[in-house]
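Hypothesis: this fold can be encoded by more than one sequence.
Test: take the structure tokens below, design a sequence, compare later.
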């Protein structure tokens, strides 16, 4: 008599990608088991949860903004009602202009309406808010806000522990055995039809996905106290400043590529403090610093879909700094693909990199 428990899906990782996919699959009636090793440096647990429809130096509309942001807002509202806690803080985002030239460039671009309704208005005159330095004005963005990611994941993890679908322990790929019907994982006495890797930057440790162009990217954030600074909006100018309580804010983020410095704290702290000082005339105190590792993909698009040679294995990740905005819609998209074979968005389909797998196999032979 078998002592193994049988599941439809074995998910590895419970960051924002794994958590939303696990919930989507469970709501569809699937038997799901999640393995997660809580790590203080995971990107989801450090992130400020910014949902920004327009970003970057070019002030461009984010990828598939209409198809991801609106569903994300509705998703987090509903999840908050279900769990009895408010996780999503819907707030305008003020993109502060750093110069008159930047202001004029934005005003010129606005004539073509390239932001599809996500820019509410552009202020060409100084923005008057308590403690704010915005002499050249700014652009007010709508449709976003910020998510309390760590409390959200903690609430879902508590639910998972109570209901038995989450195991907070290290998963070892060495103990996974596959056959024609699925996989067996001996240490946990688990059998599953499908395995989905949702491990963020830790996906680099998966021997089956080593061929993917996935690179760890380290980012730091500061928790600061700025008494008197307006908390009615998220600020953005070279850094984001996200309200986090009375007089407290989270400032981020830095971007560091490998090799990572062994002690980057002073450099990151100084860089973020300088960015904050450019946004406020008020004195501030650094309360703490956190650092996480993001999964960055060469073309800055997610990785969704099945392994080219292992039909029981899929990946869900590579969300980068847009994970909070992307996760709900991509979870539904991937669940449809796994359940019914529907098409994935071509820009996110891992099939775009299958040629790298073929090339890696030639090298190994």
């Amino acid at each position: 008599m078998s002592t193994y428990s049988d599941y439809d899906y074995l998910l590895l990782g419970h960051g924002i990608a794994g958590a939303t996919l696990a919930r989507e699959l469970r709501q569809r009636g699937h038997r799901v088991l999640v393995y997660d090793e809580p790590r203080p440096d995971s990107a989801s647990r450090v992130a400020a949860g910014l949902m920004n429809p327009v970003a970057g130096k070019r002030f461009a509309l984010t990828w598939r903004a209409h198809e991801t942001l609106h569903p994300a807002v509705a998703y987090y509202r509903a999840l908050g009602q279900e769990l009895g806690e408010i996780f999503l803080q819907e707030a305008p985002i003020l993109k502060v202009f750093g110069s008159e030239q930047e202001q004029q460039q934005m005003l010129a671009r606005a004539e073509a309406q390239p932001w599809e309704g996500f820019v509410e208005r552009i202020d060409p005159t100084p923005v008057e808010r308590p403690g704010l330095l915005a002499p050249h004005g700014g652009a007010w963005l709508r449709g976003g806000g910020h998510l309390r990611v760590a409390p959200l994941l903690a609430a879902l993890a508590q639910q998972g522990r109570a209901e038995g679908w989450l195991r907070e322990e290290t998963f070892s790929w060495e103990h996974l055995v596959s056959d024609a019907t699925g996989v067996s994982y001996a240490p946990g006495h688990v059998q599953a039809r499908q395995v989905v890797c949702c491990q963020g930057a830790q996906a680099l440790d998966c021997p089956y996905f080593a061929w993917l162009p996935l690179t760890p990217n380290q980012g730091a954030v500061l928790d600061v106290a700025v008494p008197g600074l307006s908390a009615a909006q998220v600020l953005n100018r070279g850094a984001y400043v996200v309200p986090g309580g009375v007089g407290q804010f989270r400032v981020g983020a830095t971007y560091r590529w490998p090799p990572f410095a062994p002690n980057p704290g002073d450099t990151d702290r100084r860089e973020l403090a300088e960015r904050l000082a450019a946004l406020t005339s008020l004195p501030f105190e650094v309360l703490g610093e956190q650092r996480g590792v993001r999964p960055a993909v060469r073309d800055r698009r997610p990785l969704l879909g099945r392994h080219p040679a292992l039909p029981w294995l899929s990946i869900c990740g590579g969300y980068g700094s847009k994970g909070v905005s992307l996760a709900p819609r991509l979870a539904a998209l991937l669940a449809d693909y796994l359940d019914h074979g529907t098409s994935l968005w071509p820009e996110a389909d891992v099939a775009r990199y299958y040629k790298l797998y073929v090339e890696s196999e030639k090298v190994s032979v």
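The longest strand covers residues 285-297. The chain has a mean pLDDT of 93.
Hypothesis status: open.
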